[in-house]
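Continuing from yesterday's entry. The apo prediction looked reasonable, so today I'm repeating it with pyridoxal-5'-phosphate included to see how the binding region is handled. Same sequence as before; SMILES copied from the compound registry.
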Amino acid sequence: MFQQSATLSRVKPSATGAASAKARALKAQGRDIIALDAGEPDFDTPVHIREAAIRAIHDGKTRYTDIDGTPELKAAICAKFARENGLSYTPAQVNVSPGGKPVIYNAMVASLNPGDEVIIPTPYWVSYPDMVLLAGGQPVFVPTTDAEGFKLRPEALEAAITPRTKWLILNSPSNPTGGAYTRDQLADLARVLLRHPQVWVLTDDIYEHLVFGDFEFSTIAQVEPALYERTLTMNGVSKAYAMTGWRIGYAGGPEPLITAMRKVMSQSTSNPCSISQAAAVEALNGAQDFIGPNAKVFEARRDLVVSMLNQAKGLRCATPEGAFYVYPSCEGVIGKRAPDGRTITCDRAFTEGLLEAEGVSAVFGEAFGLSPFFRISYATSEALLEDACGRIQRFCASLD
Ligand SMILES: Cc1ncc(COP(=O)(O)O)c(C=O)c1O
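Holo prediction written out below.
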């Protein structure tokens, strides 16, 4: 009989994937379901990027490439880091992997020894802890609060650091909260990190271009150049360019780390898809004019969702700075009873009851390590969002 490895037994499958699968199954049975659980933009990859991929096929760019990215794509990434983040990386300091997720995984596999600790503020993107566990490390969770916009506080960071701390993972704007760190907030965290030279920073900037109002995106190696030598600045084309299926993520960082990540890839995935790499060159070098308007669309949706959720009895929803998620508290409905007799004992019971009663699929906060909350992805039309939030209001009003 098959038995999975002890290492794999330490991790759980992605909860967001499970929520999406459940919603899809109910839809297939004919139920009227609004899925607010997906983590991808609802618009198509821009035409000029798709055309670049078709050209790449016709031009015969169909063979193995350099393992961690073509020279063209690495040059485009170096230019992007310089142009948008004021960060100077050479091609030898750049890694391209088959998606943002593998960039992080490769970094963990390349650097962690058994027992090494990785500080992960909660709530976190579902994959961080399990990637750390797969790589043999130990996640260390540091809770944040909605009152503080789910931002890690410097004192909490200081208290979590030990001699075994290898990494701090930062994600701004955040999945699942949408919260993004200001320059000053990053500077405060950097001051703590400067006192602990053994701690490296992995900053997941994949939602960089989805920030709202006059919020200005910053990344920590730019804010504190003294951390440059121990920061991996990770990004990707999935969210900003609506390219989730193309699987291209990248990072800039110290050359020894990048070399080690290439070694991991050389014995596992090899290079990312050659055609997707050509498309990513066009994404980074080509027209960027759709990014601002897309962010505006998401901002209007955020405002709609935050306003409607705050009108739902027992819910409380902070206004995040970016991404396409909100992370409302359902503390006010815990202990209440739904019309079908179930008691809302926790955030999981809340999202299960909501799916059962109103056909709205959201992800419970426990999956992101901070309860009692739930995550809504608003990467869908305003009409559907209005319908869904109306249903959430009705479900909350029905609780007694
Ligand atoms: C915070 C965060 N980081 C990384 C990723 C991974 O992106 P990719 O699809 O490029 O692997 C995601 C995708 O959902 C994400 O939300």
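Comparison notes:
- Residues 234 and 251 are 4 Å apart (CA to CA).
- The pocket of pyridoxal-5'-phosphate is lined by residues 39, 99-101, 125, 171, 175, 204, 206, 236, 238, 244, 249 (CB under 6 Å).
Will overlay with the apo model tomorrow.
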